[in-house]
Each structure stands twice: as C-alpha cells, then as structure tokens.
Amino acid sequence: MQYGIIDYWDASQPRTRIDLVTLYRDLKRAREVMTRTASGEGVERVIYDLNPALACLSPLVEEYYVIDIDSLLPAMDSLAEKSDDVRFLIDRHLAAFIAAHFSGLRGSELRDLDNQADPYLPILAAIRLLSLIQERATRVKPYINLGKLAAKMLEPTVKRYHNRQTRERIASAMKEAGATGRLSELLSVTDNYQIVEDDERRFQMAVMEYRDITNRLRQLVSDQGNRGAISRELGAQVSSVLSGVATMIALLAIVLVTFLTSG
C-alpha cells in the first residue's frame, strides 16, 4: 500500500475488475489514513478498517478478545478489577478500534487524547469517550470497577482547583460517583466547567485583593519611613493656613476699629 504496488497490479490487469472497485476505493482511503499520526488514525486504524472482524490488539484488552464495541466496556471493567497499575485507559490501538467500530463519535474526544498542553485533558478525554460508549449502549449498565479506576486516575485533576474546600468537596464527590459505575456521573463532578470557572473567578478576585492589600501595606511602610518629611510638609501646610487665618482676623480687627472710631 505504501509503495503503490496494489495500483501497479491493477494497472497490469488485462481488463478492469469491476468487482474490485470498492476494494480499490477502500485501499486508496487507507493509504491516506496511514500517513496521519493522530489518535484513531494511522496504520492501527487501517488494520481495523480493512479487517472488521479482527479483535482489538491493544495490550489493555487483547486477552479479552474484544471484537465489537459492545464487548469493550465489560473487558475494561475486568481489566480494572485485576490491574491496579493501569496508567491510561486508551492507547493508539484502542483509539483506532473505537474509531472504526463506534459511530457515535463527536470528534473532539479523539483529538483531546493527544493534547499535551493540559496534563489533565487526555485522561478526561478517555473517560468522556468511554462514557459516551456506555450511554449509547442499547442497555446502559454500570461498571463499578471501571468507575472506581477512572475516579482514581482523575484524582490529580483536583489540583486544578485553587480553593482547598472545593478540592476536598470534589475529591469526596468523585469517589462517590465512581462507585456508581456510571462514568457520566463521574464526569459531571470532575468535568464541570461551571465549577472550574467559578473557582478561577474567585481565585482571580482573591489575587486582585491580595495585590491591593500588598500595595497598601507597601505604601504604609513607605510613609512610616518618610514620617519626618511628611510631618514637615503637613506642618508647613498648617502654618500657612494658620497664618492666613491670623492675617484675616487682623484685617477684620483693623476694619472694625476704624469703623468704630470714625464716628
């Protein structure tokens, strides 16, 4: 496929093979997919596109012989029960298998798996994807072991919150939601943008208040160091005012005496 041997073979045929038109189309598309590096693409995706009955080759679930999307979550629930050191939920093979077999993808889930800017986004994206598969199933079933494992893997995301009480509340709610086996409930606690934005807004307000108080304290310290200069300046201003008042009183007295003695 990479070197166009199939195209060469097709061009060498004495007549056009109408029965292979669909295959040629699929192979042409597969050659394009092979050049892509994103999760859900590449040679892994080509393997499952051209072999629909092939079981998932991901080391995570290979031993459970996952041949369709309905058998994926039960296999991962068994994985979660037996393995305590699982570091990720979706690798390249699993992402490609899901992309080839699950028609309910929105697109953003696979893109977020490759995100390197946000350390929490890949694990959140993996759980979003598995939650979507769970909720789109013909019969929605809870997967307790998978839920607990997902909650454990999401524990570092609590560090996103600045407020200590918010972190404690979210951490407790995550454990309870994970125990239900419904990934959507876990995400509603962990991936709640309203809570994240409110925490960030309150944090920025606290930063501004801290900056204002710091500036005031710095000004007070500066004023204390310049107390002598400030006292002299205030004394000069007070003396000037008193002098003006005394002059005004003297003028009024002169005018008054002149008025009284003029008669």
Briefly characterize the structure.
By secondary structure, the chain is mainly alpha-helical. The chain is 67% helix and 0% strand.
Could you tell me the number of beta strands? 0
Q: How many angstroms does the end-to-end distance come to?
A: 127 Å
The multimeric state of the shown protein is single chain
Share of helical residues: 55-70%
Overall SS class: mainly alpha
Shape: elongated
Give the overall average pLDDT: 84
Contiguous low-pLDDT stretches (5 residues minimum) are none
Question: Main sheet, how many strands, which sense, barrel?
Answer: none
Radius of gyration: 37 Å
Number of domains: 2
What would you note in describing this structure?
- The protein is mainly alpha-helical.
- 67% of the residues lie in helices and 0% in strands.
- The protein has helices spanning 5-11, 21-34, 42-50, 72-82, 92-101, 108-113, 121-136, 144-153, 164-179, 183-190, 193-225, 227-261.
- The mean pLDDT is 84.
Question: What attributes characterize this protein structure?
Answer:
single chain; elongated; 0% strand; 2 domains; 263 residues; mainly alpha; 12 helices
Please outline the helices and strands.
Layout: H1 5-11, H2 21-34, H3 42-50, H4 72-82, H5 92-101, H6 108-113, H7 121-136, H8 144-153, H9 164-179, H10 183-190, H11 193-225, H12 227-261
Helix pairs in contact: 2-3, 3-5, 4-8, 8-9, 9-10
